[in-house]
Structures are given as C-alpha cells and as structure tokens.
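User: Quick one: structure for sequence A, then sequence B.

Assistant: Sequence A:
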Amino acid sequence: MPKSNAIASKSRSDRALLIVFFLMCTAASIGLTLWLLQDEIRLPSLSAKARKQVPQPEQYETLKKDIEIRKSRLAQSYNAAQNDAEREVVLSESRILLESILPKMMRCWLGTQWDFNGTTETPGNGKIACGYFVNTIMRDAGFSLPRIKLSQQPSQTILGAFVPRDSMSIRTGMDYSAFHELILSKAAGIYIVGLDKHVGFIVHDGSELHFIHSSGRAPWCVVDETKENAVALQNSHYRVIGNVTAQTKTLKKWLLDESVYSAN
C-alpha cells in the first residue's frame, strides 16, 4: 500500500476512534446528569398533578361539624357504659370513625400552598407549614391541643403527643423499601411520621400507604403521595412513626376532651 494511502487510512481510523470516544463521553455525561437530576425530573409531572388539586374549605367545614356531632354521641355512650366491655365497643367505634374521616379531612387541604411560617386554619386560604398542617387537622378532628405551641415542636414531640415512646418505631439510615415494608406489615390506621426536618401523616388502609403532608419541596403544597413519589420520605435519614388511632389512651382523651399535650 502506498505510504500516502496508509497515512490517510490511519487518519480516518483515528477520526473514527475520536468520534466513538466523543459519543461515549457524551452518553456518559447525559446519563450522569439524568441520574443527578432524577428527583427534579419527576417533579414537573408531580407539580402539574398537584396544581389540579383544588382545596375544599366548604367540605372541610362539613366534615368538622360531622365529626363533632358523632364524637359527642360517642362520648355520651362512653360515659354511660356500665363496664369495660361496653367502653371497648365505644373505643372501637371511635377508632373506625377517625380512620374514616381523618383522610377525608387531610385531602380537603390538597393544593394548599406550603410556607415555612404558614399558619392558616382554612384549606386554600393562605399557606401552611408541615407541623401546622398536622396539628390543625388533629385539632379540627376533635383532639384538645395547643395548636401553635405543639406545631413549633420537633417532629418526635408532635408524634409523642399522640403516641407513647414505647409505641414508636424509630429508624435511622434504614433502606426506604425496607422501611415501607415494615410500616405496611403493621396494623392499618392513621400514622404520624417525623423525618429529619419534616412531619406528616401516613394513611395505612391495610393494603397501601399514602404520605399526606405539606411539602417543603416542589410542588410546594399539601400533597398525597404513594411509595414511588414520596421523595421527602424516601430521602430522610431519620424516620420516627407511630399509629395514632391504635392508642387506647389517646382515643379516651379524644372522647373526654382531655389535652393530648402539655408543655413543661
């Protein structure tokens, strides 16, 4: 082969290798970028979905009145009970009522804007922080509590107002899927979960979990998330959780209008 042809052939081969190398680097760069931004890539679709959620203040007021009336009747039955068996029946009915109506109350807030200092008491009217979201709903469901004071406490303290320490599950650095399966294996009910710097509800209906909270990340509002899109729950290193509606003492305090929290 003439020397000039050999040089030309080598030049073409070198250019081909450079092109392949460039394409490989580009693909790797794109892949790394997509991996680093995987949470943000999911958020536009989540934000669009959240914007479709319209707060329901009128429905919320209806639910508040409904649970107030039904709680009053249950309290009368509890006070009139002649023995422990009759009181247990009332407590069981109380748990069923709360597990039915609390998720409905939470979802009336969907789409309400989040703010770190948000303190609104009405869905869609102003903004609400995560702690205020939890305690406003619990107060409006009939629990006696100092809404402002309790909402300013750490997440474990908020949970502790409703669930004793020995009934809490505390996990640090636990794999998210393992944590999800752990909670799913527990009894159905209304849970409060505390994270690194966040607090919200987990509704366990016996077959799946819904993380309902005022989100301090996109879409920056109250959201109802399942396992796949509960990013805050997934990314938290610390998780503390307890089943509020499984606590007999808490149900009694609800029925008898006794405060669940007293600041020392």
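Sequence B:
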Amino acid sequence: MGLKKRLLVAFAIIILVPILLAGTVTAAVMGFNYRNLEKGTMSTEDGETIYYVVRNGPSAPRMELPVRQTIILMVLIILLTAFITVVWLYRSLIRPLNVLRMATANMKRGNLDFTISGNPDDELGQLCEEFEEMRVRLKEQIDARMKYEQDTIELISNISHDLKTPLTAIKGYAEGIMDGVADCEEKRSKYIRTIYTKASDMSVLVDELSLYSKIDSNIIPYNFGKVDINAYFTDCVEEQSLDMEVKGITMEFASDVPAGTFVKADSEQLRRVVNNIIGNAVKYMNKPSGSIKIRLIPLKCCVKIEIEDNGPGIEENDLAHIFERFYRADSSRGTRKGGSGLGLAIVKKIIEDHGGKVGAESTPGEGSTFFFTLPIYTENNTVCEEVEDAEYSALPENGPQPEKGGREE
C-alpha cells in the first residue's frame, strides 16, 4: 500500500471510529428510554387521550450503569484504535525516516560502509532503495578516485625514476665529451649514440604521457582510412626486422588473410599499437635467441592479429590486469625496466576505438601472445559490425605458420 493510501486510511479510521461509536451510544440511550416508557389512556371531554410516561423509582431500571459502561467502552475503543493507528503510521513513516536520517549522518562523517533497505511497495521504501543505490555509486566513485590518485602517485614515482636514469646518463656522457674523456673519434661517437638513445627513450616516455592525457580526456585524434592489412603488416615487419637483428631477435610473419582484404584503421595509431606490443616483448626478452612472430588470421567479420614472443611470459595473476593503466607486474617492478605502465592501456584504448577487441595469453617461462581484432570492410565499403565473441576468442587449430624473412603473400 502506498504512502498516500496509508495516510487516507489512517485519517478515515480516526474520523469514522468516533462517529460510529457516538452513534452506537446514542442508539443505546434512545433504546433504553424507549423501553422505560409506559402507555396509558385518559378520558377527556373530547374523548380518550393516549399518554406515555417514563417509569421511575425503585421498580424502574436505571440507565446510568449501561450508559456509563458504553461510554467507557467507547473511550477504550477510541484509545485502542488511536494506538494501533499511531503504531501503524510509525512503522510506515517514522522508521524509514530514521533509517534515512542515520544514513545521512553516516555519509556526513564520511562513512559509506553501510546498507539500507526499504519496502519497495511504498514511496518511502522506494526512496530508501534509491538512497542505497546512490550510496553504492558514490562509494564506487570514491574508490575509483582513490585508486586513480594512488595510480597517479605511482606514475609520478615511475616517471621520476624513468626520467632520472637517462638524464643522469646523458649528463655523464656529455660531461665526458666536454672534459675530453672521449679523446678519440670512436669513443666520442659511442658517447653521442648513447646520448641519442637515452634522449629517444625520454621522448617515447613523454609521448606516452601526452597520449595518456588525451586518453584520460577521451580526445585521441584519429584519421581513419582504408588499410590493406597484408601490405601494412608486411611493411611493418620489414621496418622492425632491421632493429630486431641488432638486438638478436628474429621476426617472422605469416598471413592467411586473402589478398586485397581491407580494414578501417588509423595507420599511425595502429603502428603505435604494434610498436607498443613489440616494444614490451623486446624490453622483457630474457632469451639469448629472441623470437617475435606476427600472424594474421581471417575471421567472419574481422581480422585477428597475433603477436607472439618467446620471452619470460606473464604470471596468471598479472595477466588479468596488464591492460590497466599504470599497471606493472611485480616481476617487472623488480627489474626496473622502466616505462610508464601506460603502453598496453594505450593499446587497449586504440583497438577499442577501432571497433576491435584485445587480449593476451601467456605461459610463464615460455612466452606470451597478444592478439587484437580489426573489423574488415565489405564490398560496399561499410564495416562489418557482427564481430562475435566466440570467433574472437577461438584460436584456429591450423592457423598460418610463420616463415622467416618477413612476408608471405
């Protein structure tokens, strides 16, 4: 029963019960007097006259006692009715209001670790439920804000270390050149190359931070176009292969995607995705003969790109968090490999903005496989939107086997 109906019923009870009881008493008194009337006749000059008299005296029944009993009973009934009505209204109105008052007092003190509930059939109960929903959302926002602040503190700490290390190296090598320590051309060239490498590392870090700020504001600039997926990754692998050879890492590429398959993508941001994943693999590579394999796998409405390495792998408890902003696995924290912890978060954001999905699989000690999907164009140049989760997550039993040399037509 709603609050309005409860109030109407309560007022009706308060008004009607006294009226009914008063009518009952009046009827009882009138009935009592009627029973005490005696009928008689009297002769007059005009004839007979009928008269009624009220009996009084010892033989007449007295009316004070039943009337008094009736009045006492009426008063008791009114009091009982009022008490029941007040209790009913108290349970319906005051208790939910007290619950809300205590809840607001807790929130004023900054305590959100409580729950309230109400009867969903009345207005105050619905208000309690809405208040509880507000409390839950507010607590989630505060928890998210606290995590964000903690992540920001951790980011600043990481940046301080990751900037301090190359800056110290740059300063040391620059002082060596100025002080004449690099007294031959070969040594000067080595110092300059080191300075350039450290400056490049700093540039990458600053670039990631700049992109992160755009991610945080949801204003990543995209320039989508029609991209030939086979040609794109063929060029990408050829560019990366030269750098990988210097680091003792071989790159392999295989594609089972038909020639002339196009995807909608921003080529620059897609290159950032590939570079971030490969850069992560190179950074943590712990094998003397490293290997990175890229595969293109056709699905119903998308192309699946796999990037596999034979590095140290990722622990299972870290695997679920690697795409979170600022997250760095405990093992990587210990090695102090550097980085902002934003690379894979940027990968996830870019791929999702492309309409694809991203994931990872890993076996500790054997390596990791990162994969993502990109929707393909149909013949009328529209993007196929029906990317099924089952297709996305399923690994092909007989996928393309990568070949060394960088390309497969």
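Confidence is low (pLDDT under 50) at residues 332-336, 386-409. The chain has three domains: 3-111, 139-216, 225-404.

User: Thanks, that's what I needed.
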